[in-house]
Amino acid sequence: MRKTSMLLTAALALMLAAGCGSADRSASGSAAQENVAKPAPDSAAATDNRDQATKQSASTGAGGAGGGAIGDSGTKSTTQAPTEKPDPSNKADKAAEPKKNLYRMNKNYRFEPLAPGVADKVVLLTFDDGPKEKERLTNMLDTLDKHKAKAVFFVNGYRVMQNPDLLKLIAERGQTIGNHSWDHINLKNESKAKVRKQIGDVQTLVEELTGKKPRMFRAPFGSGGDVVKAAAADERLLYMTWSNGSLDWDKSAKNKPDAVIASVMKQLHPGANILMHELPWTADALDRLLTKLEAKGYGFIDPETIELPGTASAAAAQTKASGTDTKH
User: Fold this and answer.
1) Is 147 annotated as catalytic?
2) CA-CA distances (angstroms) from residue 327 to 38, 155, 170, 264, 324?
3) What residue stretches are annotated with the NodB homology domain (predicted)?
């Protein structure tokens, strides 16, 4: 009996031992599977790095064929690192880089290259007395865009007050805004105080609407004088008249686009400062005019590349000159 009891105890002990070993093996196996299914936290990055290295190797092995950015190592990669989107609240991202000065205006209000290699067969396009009417202005802006041309729109303060959205449109379309006085009066006949107000009020209004003051001034009728030039200089404005009058304001050209084109082409010269206006027949003539200028080998000066007076004293020291026309 005692012997039978001892045998039963031994058998029970063996069964318990076998069960524990099986449980241990099962737990060990589950842990091993979990380790295989879930890589270490940095193993995904390692995999990405290996994939990236494989792509770079393939690109290099193929002779760097295809596009892609030049990496720090100097080899081309078919993939690019993600770039950060500009922060709209960052003013530095908004600010446009100033363009390099390429042209200088001479005493005859013509433009000359500042350095060898800069094209001299060019003209400056300008339009006075706006902004007036949206459809016409938009048509002119579209034509300028079609020819990849820039221009100066010399505006009057009272018209800006009437059409502030049109002024903003000019700026939004990448064109340059110039100062043409508030009331379009003959400033040569006015007092110093009135002249300063006529110019200064336009500066203030344009800055309020666009965030940028004009840097160029054209006196109404091309009529200036020492007082007007000094007032413009105090505002750090480049004073100008013109060297090529389209005569689009003259009754002989009214409703005659061909007459506007003929007048400009007749007076054409390198560095021409072309005076035009926001008039229906000028808008109608503009596409053909720019096409003819291009056919003659002329390009269009970007006003933002014109050398401007850095100080009031520098502007006041400009050589006194009168425009070739004094009718507008």
Assistant:
1) no
2) 85, 18, 26, 16, 10
3) 121-301
